[in-house]
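Sequence in, structure out. Go.
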Amino acid sequence: MSGKGWCPLEGEELISETALAETLVGGQAFRWFWREGEGAWLGIWERNAVYLRRDEGGVLSFRSPTGTDADSVAAYLARGRSRAWARKLPLAADPVLHRLAAKWSGLSLLAQPLEETLLAFLCSSNKRIRQIRDMLERLASAFGEPIQGTGLRALPSWERLATVSESSLRACALGYRAPNVLATARRLAADPEWANRLASLPYREARDWLQQLPGVGAKVADCVLLFGVGRGEAFPVDTWIAKALAGHYPEIARWPREQLATFARIHFGPGAGLAQQWFFAEARGQSTEALKILSSDSRSG
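Output:
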């Protein structure tokens, strides 16, 4: 795979290796791979393929075989938006959050394409991060369009998925998720303005609309709104987060998940989703090397 040389991301703050790894492969995105030969991460979104690395001082640089420019990479990484959300968190009033910020403040929430985010989290039910990533790679290989000059494939559009059979989706290891993906694809393919309409809705209405799609519950809806629409108030609650909140705030340990999500949106405010990712990273406790191994990709690059 050929491409231009490495270019620094001008104006970006320094980042730790741990924060970078958690940002890219810590459960919000599923198409970043560690390429040992490059000493860099390879990320794929829409028709973009980007290698990203940091030097020993924490400066980020990139190269892109698809010609993705620095502004587009910076927009995707959305580090400025995450810093703005962090400033809105009640760090001074909440010692738990203050401690997490000291460790995870470099972690950012990516500005991912909405359609790809919805597909990823429809596949996420009862699956680990690596399994979700593998399902998406199978879908891309089977139904996605080639990304010119890279040997990679984009994720299939909802219009493309609407034309395939349930058995073909099951062959991509989707299991019981296959009929939900197919039914959602057919619904969205018939409604080409759905993404623009969803992005314009208030949070509650957007959450309710998403939960009308097959296979979308409260947690998946919040993941889509947080990672794919950029609604910072969204606070997905899964087993990891429920346990983390119970450990840090014992007085709410027995609350149901929906009540925990409501508490988090009120307590953490407009940047609640960023706090959620801090809790998630802390609860999993993965080392950077473990994240690289779990996300390594054997294809040449």
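Check: The mean pLDDT is 94. The chain has three domains: 1-77, 78-109+230-286, 112-218.
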